[in-house]
Specification:
12 helices
Length: about 300
């Protein structure tokens, strides 16, 4: 496989966002009739099978098991919290709030990775937070408490990606994916007996489709990051908002209101600028090898 194929990587990233948008739509649909833990468990079982296939000829033992466990808990927490939020919000609102993750990563990288954040990136973070407030509208009639689930989901995902950075030089991405899938499956399996109901054939079928789409999206993300750097691909993942807006209208008859559109524009602009500053920072490090960070601070190019 080519080590530098940006066009192919962009197509893979866009395809992944379509699969993620479709799986989120199915999640919202199923959340009205099935316990959330139940259909996410089915999704994770398929995810675990895919992950096991990825490492079938490799060592499955990580060098950082404690961090892998924490990452796995963050990933499954992000998944469950997102569905609790999207169950009561429109697809566009829930997805827009999820775009806070890159900005939260910038904030968390200071205490957890020891990175330095300049005034330009702080300004981007501030703008993104304003965009989030525009979407959530606390104190106004449009505020939905379910938005707090979305914020918590974004925080969990940001923590997961921070840990991905820390372990990227010691554990291969396939092992990280396997452990995240296994831990998530174990957590959901422990909760399943308290919430499970017998699904109808239609519900079970859609749950399987959800698992296939979500796992396929994860696989496409891995493939995309193999042939292009994360800084190049980051802007294209915002296309997911277009997919969920269209699907939200087609399936649920929902269109984003003016507040959501305005907030999304602010959050996306701040996220794109943050990605731009990250690319500039990486180039400066490459130009000054003597100032390159140690393995502890290295940037991961796989957010699987």
């Amino acid at each position: 496989m080519s080590s530098d194929d940006p066009i192919r990587a962009i197509v893979l990233a866009l395809s992944a966002t379509l699969l993620f948008g479709s799986s989120d739509t199915i999640s919202k649909y199923l959340s009205t009739s099935l316990p959330i833990v139940e259909f996410i468990w089915i999704r994770y079982v398929l995810f675990l099978l895919m992950a096991a296939f990825l490492v079938h000829h490799r060592s499955r033992r990580p060098r950082n098991p404690a961090l892998q466990i924490i990452r796995g808990l963050c990933v499954v927490g992000s998944s469950v919290l997102f569905v609790y939020g999207v169950r009561q919000m429109t697809m566009a609102q829930a997805t827009t709030i999820s775009f806070l993750s890159p900005l939260l990563i910038t904030i968390l990288s200071i205490p957890l990775l020891g990175e330095t954040v300049g005034p330009r990136r702080w300004a981007a973070v501030g703008a993104g937070m304003i965009g989030m407030l525009v979407v959530v509208r606390p104190g106004l009639g449009g505020f939905q408490p379910a938005a707090l689930f979305g914020v918590a989901s974004s925080l969990c995902w940001a923590l997961a990606l921070i840990i991905t950075r820390k372990i990227s030089n010691t554990d291969p991405p396939q092992v990280t994916v396997l452990w995240s899938a296994a831990i998530g499956t174990a957590v959901l399996s422990s909760m399943l007996p308290f919430q499970a109901v017998w699904p109808s054939p239609t519900q079970f079928g859609w749950s399987l489709v959800l698992g296939v789409l979500a796992s396929g999206g994860q696989w496409l993300v891995i493939l995309a990051h193999r042939v292009a750097p994360a800084s190049l691909l980051a802007p294209f993942f915002y296309s997911q908002l277009l997919w969920v807006t269209a699907l939200g209208f087609l399936v649920f008859g929902n269109l984003p209101d003016a507040w959501t559109v305005a907030g999304a524009a602010i959050i996306i602009a701040s996220g794109l600028y943050t990605a731009h500053r990250e690319r500039v920072r990486v180039r400066r490090r490459a130009a000054s090898p003597d100032q390159a960070p140690s393995g502890r601070h290295a940037r991961s190019q796989t957010a699987a």
